C-alpha cells in the first residue's frame, strides 16, 4: 500500500509538472516565434507610416542616425528588462507577471506607482491612436474607390466621415476583447505581423516605383528648408515632433514583460526574450529604414504624415486599397496586444478586492457552434466593452494623427524604455555609484530624458495648432 501511494503521488507530481508551471499557473506555450510575432505586431504599428515625414523634417543624415540610435537603445534596454522578469535570479527566481511587478521587486516605493502611471497611460494612448489610424486607413479605401468611380475633379463629392469606421473598429474590438488573456493572442499577433509586413512592403514598393519612374522631389541632408518649406519656428517644432514619432515607432517596452510571461521554459525565458527582441527590433529597423528613406526619396520635403496616403487615390488604386486594409487588420491585432495588459491589471485588482463577488469572479460556459465552449465572465464583458467604447469616443473627439503619435512616444519612451530598465539593472547588479558603468548608464538616461522633453514639446505645439483649426464631426475631404 505504501508503494502504491508513493507511485500515485509520483504520477500526480508528473501530471502537475506536465500541465502547470513552477508558479502553479497553466503551462505556458509561447515560443521564440510567437514572442517575435508579438514584438513585431507591437513595434511595426502605425508609427511606420509617419517615418517618411519624420525623415523629411530631419534630413538624410539626422533622420537615419536617429532611427538607428533609437533601435540600438531599444534593443539594449530590452535585454536589461528581460533579465528582470524573474527576481532575484534572472533564470530561477520568482516570476513577475507585469511591468509594475518587476519594478516592485527591484526598486519598490513610489516608483511602482510612477511605472503604473506611465505604462497604463501609454497603453491607453496607444489604443486611442490605433483607433484613429485604423479609421484613417478605411476612409482612404472608401475615398479611393469613390475617386476611381466618380473621378477626381471635385474632391467634395468623395468626402467621408471617420466616425462610422471608428464605430466598426470598436465593435470588432469589443468582440476580440473577450479573449481572456495574452496567452490566447498568438494567432492574432501572427496574423497582424503578416499584415504589417504586407503594407510596409507595398509602401516600400510604391516608393521605389515612384523613384524609378523619374520622380525627383527635393531632398536635402538637413530636411525641410527654412524659408522655403517651413518657417524657422516650424522647423524647430517639427524636428521635435519627428523625434517623438520615431520614439513611438519603437514603442514595445510597455508590453515586454507580458510577452515574456507567455514563454514556455526551458530554455530560460530571458534568453528566448533577448533573441526575440533582437529578431523583432532588427527586422523592424530594416523595414523602418527602407520605408522611411524610400518614402522620403519618393516625396521629398513634402512627404505626407501617412506616406501610404501620399500616393493619392489614383492608380494602382486596388493595391493601395489592399495596403490600407492590411493596416486596419494589423491594428485590430495590435490594439489587443496593448489592451490586454490594461484588462488584466483591472481584473486582477478587482478579483483581489472583491473575491466573493460572483459578478466579478464567476465564469459561465457557453456553447458556440463549431468552436466548442467559451467561458464568459460578466465583469470582463462589461468592463472591456466600456473601455473600448470610451477610447473610441476619445478618438472621435481628437482625430489627430502625427501629433498624437509623437506625444505618446515622447511621454512613454523615457520612463518605460530607458529609465526603469537602467535603474533596475543598476539595483540588481549592485553597480557602484560613480563607477564607469554607472556614469555612462546615467548619461544615457539623462540624454534620453532631454530628447523626450523636446519631443513632447513639439507634439504639444502640434496639437495646439491642430485644435485652432479643428472642426468636430467634419468629413474627410470637406
TrEMBL record:
Amino acid transporter transmembrane domain boundaries: 29-464
GO biological process, alphabetically ordered: amino acid transport
Localization terms from the record: Cell membrane
GO-annotated molecular function: symporter activity
GO cellular component, one term: plasma membrane
Keyword Transport part of the UniProt annotation: yes
Spans through the membrane: 32-53, 60-82, 120-141, 162-179, 185-209, 278-297, 317-339, 381-401, 407-427, 439-464
InterPro entries: AA_transpt_TM
Pfam family, one: Aa_trans
Keywords: Amino-acid transport, Cell membrane, Membrane, Symport, Transmembrane, Transmembrane helix, Transport
Family: Belongs to the amino acid/polyamine transporter 2 family. Amino acid/auxin permease (AAAP) (TC 2.A.18.2) subfamily.
Name of the molecule in the record: Amino acid transporter transmembrane domain-containing protein
Organism: Daucus carota subsp. sativus
Lineage: Eukaryota, Viridiplantae, Streptophyta, Embryophyta, Tracheophyta
Amino acid at each position: 500500500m505504501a508503494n502504491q501511494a508513493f507511485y500515485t503521488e509520483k504520477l500526480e507530481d508528473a501530471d502537475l509538472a506536465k500541465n502547470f508551471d513552477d508558479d502553479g499557473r497553466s503551462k505556458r506555450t509561447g515560443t521564440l516565434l510567437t514572442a517575435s510575432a508579438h514584438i513585431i505586431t507591437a513595434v511595426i504599428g502605425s508609427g511606420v507610416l509617419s517615418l517618411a515625414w519624420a525623415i523629411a523634417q530631419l534630413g538624410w543624415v539626422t533622420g537615419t542616425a536617429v532611427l538607428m540610435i533609437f533601435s540600438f537603445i531599444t534593443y539594449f534596454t530590452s535585454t536589461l528588462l528581460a533579465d528582470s522578469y524573474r527576481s532575484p535570479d534572472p533564470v530561477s527566481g520568482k516570476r513577475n507577471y507585469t511591468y509594475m511587478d518587476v519594478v516592485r521587486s527591484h526598486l519598490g516605493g513610489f516608483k511602482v506607482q510612477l511605472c503604473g502611471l506611465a505604462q497604463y497611460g501609454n497603453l491607453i494612448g496607444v489604443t486611442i491612436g490605433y483607433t484613429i489610424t485604423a479609421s484613417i486607413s478605411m476612409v482612404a479605401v472608401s475615398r479611393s474607390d469613390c475617386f476611381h468611380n466618380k473621378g477626381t475633379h471635385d474632391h467634395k463629392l468623395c468626402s467621408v466621415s471617420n466616425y462610422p469606421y471608428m464605430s466598426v473598429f470598436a465593435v470588432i474590438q469589443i468582440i476580440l476583447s473577450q479573449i481572456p488573456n495574452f496567452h490566447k493572442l498568438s494567432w492574432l499577433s501572427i496574423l497582424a505581423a503578416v499584415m504589417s509586413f504586407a503594407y510596409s512592403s507595398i509602401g516600400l514598393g510604391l516608393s521605389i516605383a515612384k523613384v524609378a519612374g523619374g520622380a525627383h522631389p527635393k531632398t536635402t541632408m538637413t530636411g525641410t528648408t527654412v524659408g522655403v518649406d517651413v518657417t524657422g519656428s516650424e522647423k524647430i517644432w517639427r524636428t521635435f515632433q519627428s523625434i517623438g514619432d520615431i520614439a513611438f515607432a519603437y514603442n514595445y517596452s510597455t508590453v515586454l514583460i507580458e510577452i515574456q510571461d507567455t514563454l514556455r521554459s526551458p530554455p530560460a525565458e530571458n534568453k528566448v526574450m533577448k533573441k526575440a527582441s533582437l529578431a523583432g527590433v532588427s527586422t523592424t529597423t530594416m523595414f523602418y529604414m527602407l520605408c522611411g528613406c524610400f518614402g522620403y526619396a519618393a516625396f521629398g520635403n513634402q512627404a505626407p504624415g501617412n506616406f501610404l496616403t501620399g500616393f493619392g487615390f489614383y492608380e494602382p488604386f486596388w493595391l493601395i486599397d489592399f495596403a490600407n486594409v492590411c493596416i486596419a487588420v494589423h491594428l485590430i491585432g495590435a490594439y489587443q496586444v496593448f489592451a490586454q495588459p490594461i484588462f488584466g491589471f483591472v481584473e486582477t485588482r478587482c478579483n483581489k478586492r472583491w473575491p466573493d463577488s460572483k459578478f466579478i469572479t464567476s465564469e459561465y460556459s457557453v456553447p458556440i457552434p463549431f468552436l466548442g465552449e467559451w467561458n464568459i465572465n460578466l465583469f470582463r464583458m462589461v468592463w472591456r466593452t466600456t473601455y473600448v467604447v470610451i477610447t473610441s469616443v476619445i478618438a472621435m473627439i481628437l482625430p489627430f494623427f502625427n501629433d498624437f503619435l509623437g506625444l505618446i512616444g515622447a511621454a512613454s519612451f523615457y520612463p518605460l524604455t530607458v529609465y526603469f530598465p537602467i535603474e533596475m539593472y543598476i539595483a540588481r547588479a549592485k553597480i557602484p555609484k560613480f563607477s564607469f558603468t554607472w556614469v555612462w548608464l546615467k548619461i544615457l538616461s539623462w540624454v534620453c530624458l532631454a530628447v523626450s522633453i523636446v519631443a513632447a514639446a513639439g507634439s504639444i505645439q502640434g496639437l495646439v495648432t491642430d485644435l485652432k483649426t479643428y472642426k468636430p464631426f467634419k468629413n474627410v475631404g470637406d
